[in-house]
Amino acid sequence: MKTKAHSRHGCPPTDKTGKEIINQKNKQKVHGVSQSEESIKLQSHLGETDASKEQDNNKGFSSKKMDTVKHHKSRSTGDKEPISRKNPKHFTDVHGLPCIERIVTSVEDTPEPISTDIIGTIPNWIHGNFLRNGPGKFEIGNHRFNHWFDGMALLHQFKISDGQVTYKSRFLSSDSYQSNKDQNRIVMSEFGTVTMPDPCKNIFQRFLSRFELPKPTDNANVSFVTYKGDFYVSTETNIMHKVDPETLEATQKVDWSKFIAVNGATAHPHTEPDGTAYNMGNSYSTKGAYYNIIRVPPTKEAEEETLEGTTVLCSIPAEDKTKPSYYHSFAMSENYVVFIEQPIKMDLLKIVTGKLTRKSISNCFSWNPKLNTVLHLIHKHTGKVSPIQYLAKPISTFHQINAYEEHGFLIIDLCASDDGQAIANYNIQNLRKSGEALDEVYNTLCRVFPRRFVLPLRIEPGTPYNQNLIDLPNCTATAVRTGKNKVFCTHEDLHGEDLHMYGGLEFPQINYGKYNMHPYRYFYGCGFRHLVGDTLLKMDLQGKEMKVWEDPGLYPSEPVFVPCPNATEEDDGVILSVVITPIKDKSTFLLVLDAKTFEELGRAVVPVNIPYGFHGTFSSTA
Ligand SMILES: [Fe+2]
């Protein structure tokens, strides 16, 4: 394994600050980057294989070689033509990606804890459960799920104490899982999979079943979240499950719509230091679709409570009543919720007729690059929506990094790309491809990079038009008033050219407990030289330098930061990540990195296979 330090390069030199002087000095470290073409050489990350099975697995590339990666410039705002699925745009030109089918393959759960082999040192101060969520079963009987997001939720627990680690996992006993298991076929429609009519019904019943509305799944396979101090597993429908973090057993099914008028909520709520949680969810009525800001109280008044006391802070009507934007998360600063209305649209009419037309929800998503992105500010304490619309070119964003207010501006950092069609391409068949077919899938996905938008909070009658309103030092983001209540924003890249070598960054994480909603310096994420993360990255906003952890053939999950006791600096702590590989059976390990140096402290090797997962959290029991 290697940890590399990279410095920002390819940045426009200026002569104003010491930061740029450092950049100039570090330009010597550029690895053959041609800035004009954004074309780079990327050393093959194909690991050595030692069995014929592995050779089969990696069919499609003849030998270890230098892969060529070309990152084209993103499309301009004025691009008018929606992309045809029959002739997709190619964003990169990568060849020789290793097949990762084995890390998107069904596994059995491990409900009884098993010990792990420790290599190196797991710090003694870490006490708690590292909880992770993700899909674990992709076939039921003879039926197969279509989309990566559809796999049955498998909950993982790495229990860390006194330098030792045990592991266990358990399939979420959701209604979806139980029904599928009982009938040995896919009974509940998922995001990318439409159920077939029950073969036991007569032909008339089967015909009528096509007119039923799709039932929301309770296969909560996206994240672990906390409300009022309790752990829940969440997807994006109205159903969550409360889960005991010790046993991983689901203890209660909780329906958002029993408490407030919403049809779902994201799997990425934000929590304030006192425990108050905010989330967003859609509601649908005869008047159209609304985006709702949700607030959940910080504490329970009775032990059996779940979402009692939850309120809708405000409702924002969708611009297109029948085609609201899809959002996976949102940002939160001290005083505001930031809702990003991106031009990924959900066609509600297609969704409600999906059973009849055999279209899954993922088939009802579309990317409309003719539309701008709109950032809405909602005041958390009054519920008032800012009359100012902050516009930006069409972007697609799944995960925000952080947001805070400073000197009259709201700074929002997020992971974004210039194309919004990736979600449809993450079907299981694509993930399991090999050779040129796999390369083709990767190359038609737009890379995701960390970006900063800066929103001026005070737009008054005398605020000038047609000039950049941002006067923060060293900030290259712009915000220009273009109308009475309109400000057009352009972003600042939060990275140097070197991040292109690692395929961009997703699954961002920060020292959330102390720095969410506050000025901060570091964020962490996965590099994406493949369809899943294949490196861990530490980004330093001062100088935009980065550190990298990588090991050929290994695929690390989202890095979760855990602060050490009595931490004084932002990066005093460790990074936890679950690392898996398609090239060696049962070679999963929990990786522990020193968050400051990004050097490996230790790993806990667990003899199981785990599919690549989505999100996790650390629950301290110290
Ligand atoms: Fe997510």
UniProtKB/TrEMBL annotation:
Residues 47-57 have a biased composition (Basic and acidic residues). It holds the Pfam family RPE65. Signal peptide: none annotated. Keywords: Iron, Metal-binding. InterPro entries: Carotenoid_Oase (IPR004294). This is Beta-carotene oxygenase 2b. Its cofactor is Fe(2+). It comes from Characodon lateralis. Belongs to the carotenoid oxygenase family. It comes from the Eukaryota. Residues 1-92 are annotated as: Disordered. Transmembrane segments: none annotated.
